[in-house]
UniProtKB/TrEMBL annotation:
Entry keyword annotation includes Cell wall biogenesis/degradation: no
Entry annotated with the keyword Ubl conjugation: no
Stated name of the protein: Cadherin domain-containing protein
UniProt GO molecular function: beta-catenin binding; cadherin binding; calcium ion binding
Any one annotated GO CC term: catenin complex
Lineage of the organism: Eukaryota, Metazoa, Ecdysozoa, Arthropoda, Chelicerata
Keywords: Calcium, Membrane, Repeat
Length: 144
């Protein structure tokens, strides 16, 4: 007699899906490296594979943000409003991808969504153009 053991392995046959097609977050200039800007959410039809979804920002050359495999978008490097906001643009648009592990063979292997980050200018230190001297006491009662 011969014993044959067959192990059936679940294969992820469906692409992951973002829970929405557009994500928008605000980012304050000067936020420290590591600050979480926002969170993406995706799901897989094959529930066994929800923990294996990989997230990517496509062509991220604008400034230093990254997304991890839990969907958290965070600051990777210092962001300077004046340097990054050419032509007074205060928003940055990205394309996001959620995919299953492995090589992308076709559009059936991934889902896309857009990401808009509004960069909010932090108030700089105030600049005073003239000096004002104020003295208070018995012989002085104000500014000049």
């Amino acid at each position: 007699s011969v014993v044959i053991i067959v192990k059936v392995k679940n294969v992820n046959e469906f692409k992951p899906k973002f829970n929405k097609k557009h994500f928008e977050f605000n980012l304050i200039e000067g936020s420290p490296i590591g600050t979480v800007i926002g969170s993406l959410q995706g799901s897989a039809v094959d529930e066994d594979f929800n923990d294996t979804i990989q997230y990517f920002i496509v062509k991220n050359k604008k400034f230093g943000i990254e997304v991890d495999n839990k969907g958290l978008i965070s600051i990777r490097s210092a962001i300077n409003f004046e340097k990054e906001s050419r032509n007074s643009a205060e928003e940055f648009k990205y394309m996001l991808i959620a995919k299953n592990p492995g090589v992308i063979r076709s559009e059936a292997d991934y889902d896309e969504a857009s990401l808009l980050i509004n960069l909010i200018k932090a108030n700089g230190s105030p600049v005073f153009n003239q000096s004002i001297v104020c003295k208070f006491g018995e012989k002085h009662d104000g500014c000049r």
